[in-house]
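A protein record in our archive is deliberately plain, so that people and models can read it alike. The tokens are whole numbers drawn from a learned vocabulary of local backbone shapes. For reference, a complete record is included directly beneath this paragraph.
>
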Amino acid sequence: MTPSFAAIVYEQGFAIDSLMAQVVERLKAGSLRLGGVVQRNSGDCDGVCDEMALVDVASGTLYPISQARGAGGTGCRLDAAGLAEAGGAVARALSEGVDLVLVNRFGKQEALGHGLRAEIAAGCLSGRPLLTAVRRDHLVDWEAFAGEDWQRLPPDVEPVARWALTATGRA
């Protein structure tokens, strides 16, 4: 039996946001009704992110999640208000009965009990198929959060799409 939630496990430096966008396009082409959010960045994010946003995969609505640090600042600062708004897109996806819910990643904030952790938990408990991504250095925290009944996926579109089609009963 295919677990109802899965995580793409990837290494630091891997272009996970690009992969998630490709997965969304592939699954939409397969007529799956998707909900949730994936991340879109402008700039190279190697040191200083120009802008980070979460994109509602159903509506295309952008939720900015970064704040400028100002003169002399380095790196990105997460905007908790934007993240909370994006959490609403995940909650809507769960209540609207989509085929698959996507949450961009289980990362540092989620490991600390913040970010989209509550939305990921609600998705996992709903029994509705949920897909997220976990960078290898957050894997221990993910495993403590998710337990053992989840599917580990490689950072490759085809195996992820196969899992999604099987988990949604479309395979």
The chain has a mean pLDDT of 90.
